[in-house]
Amino acid sequence: MLNIAIFASGGGSNAEAIIRHLKNHTHLSVQLIVSNRKNAGVLDRATNHDIETLIIDRAGFYEEKNIIANLAPHKIDLIVLAGFLWLIPKYLIKEFPNRVINIHPALLPKYGGKGMYGHHVHQAVFDNKEKESGLTIHYVNEHYDEGNIILQARCPLTSTDQPEDIARKVLSLEHQVYPVAVEMVGRFIRDGEI
């Protein structure tokens, strides 16, 4: 069994989609939800699914580097970022090479980088009158949104779509695609391809 830790800072709808998709899976299991916010909605979702949680703080994550020791008892094979807003430090990427993945609510390389998350992304897509948007699932490196792309999915936009409409379309697509992508990366790990 390959064990997954989901890192999230917010409500956790993508975490929920992944947990539901992998429930009773033959070789993948969500073992831990990690959050940098003690009131994050994702923690309630974890409780509802009897999944352990871990709250981290900035000093422990960046300076003391205690996240590796905290992950060890759960035998984590894959870290899945699902709305986690902190930059992943080099030491953690080195510990989990090609085993940290992220979802970004736009078609990278457009609309990526520091500060480009959530409504900021959808507003930028709207402001530039894009005809489509979508999502990018990528491996994480030491820079925001610059890791190698695993896959992208697109959705058409209309001239009447407002930023909140774009957000709704992209989130719906995320819930469909991210769980399948996590399963696919898990298969890569199991088969020794990464």
How does the SSE layout of this entry go?
Elements: E1 2-7, H1 13-22, E2 28-35, H2 41-48, E3 52-55, H3 58-63, H4 67-71, E4 76-81, H5 90-95, E5 100-104, H6 118-127, E6 132-139, E7 149-156, H7 163-190
Parallel strand pairs: 1-2, 1-4, 2-3, 4-5
Antiparallel strand pairs: 5-6, 6-7
Helix pairs in contact: 1-7, 6-7
Question: Which properties best describe this structure?
Answer:
globular, 194 residues, 7 helices, 7-stranded mixed sheet, alpha/beta, 38% helix, Rossmann fold
Fold and architecture overview:
The chain is of the alpha/beta class and 194 residues long. It has a single domain, classed as Formyl transferase, N-terminal domain (Rossmann fold, 3-Layer(aba) Sandwich). Helix content is 38%, strand content 23%. A seven-stranded mixed sheet has the order 3-2-1-4-5-6-7, covered by helices on one side.
How many strands appear in the DSSP assignment?
7
Strand order of the largest sheet: 3-2-1-4-5-6-7
Shape: globular
Structural class: alpha/beta
**Percent range for β-strand residues:** 15-25%
Radius of gyration based on Cα positions: 16 Å
The major beta sheet can be summarized as:
7 strands, mixed
Unreliable runs:
none
Classified by CATH, the class is: Alpha Beta
What order do the SSEs take from the amino end to the carboxyl end, as H and E?
Answer: EHEHEHHEHEHEEH
CATH fold annotation: Rossmann fold
Query: Average pLDDT across residues?
Result: 96
Report the end-to-end length measured between terminal Cα atoms: 16 Å
What's the helical proportion of residues? 25-40%
CATH superfamily: Formyl transferase, N-terminal domain
Number of helices: 7
Count of discrete structural domains = 1
This entry's quaternary arrangement is single chain
